[in-house]
Amino acid sequence: MDHEYKSLELAKAYEHQGYYQDALDMYDSLNETYQGTDQDIQAGCTRMKKILEKAGPSVSYSSGQEHKTDENQMKGRLAKKMEEWLRLLILKKRLGMYKRIQSRF
Q: Tell me: the pLDDT tens digits for 11-27?
């Protein structure tokens, strides 16, 4: 991924979203810029290297096919959650109607 803007916050955002290779690239770039003087950046580099070493190449997600597959899985999970949310919303509405009808008796 081409990083036009580089910041610690953006690197942390990549990390939290699971884009570990992109986060590591940004942390490394920032580490070079600050010449190894920022402890947060160094800690981020270390964290990302450990995660990537532990998980292997399937987790790096650097804009390749793995990222598209993960994105499709996320869309599928989101669709299921949305469907569940709509079902619960309808049930809540029905329950409210049932309670109003019941209170009339």
A: 999 999 988 998 999 99
What digits encode the pLDDT tens for the residues 31-78? Answer: 998 888 889 999 999 999 999 988 765 554 444 445 556 777 788 888
Distance CA 51, CA 17 (A): 13
Tokens encoding 92? 């809540």
pTM for the model stands at: 0.52
What ranges do the domains of the chain cover? 1-63, 65-105
Amino acid at 71: E
- The residues near 70 (Cβ < 8 Å, ≥ 6 apart) are 18, 61
- Cβ(28)–Cβ(45) under 8 Å? yes
Q: How far apart are the first and last CA of the chain?
A: 65
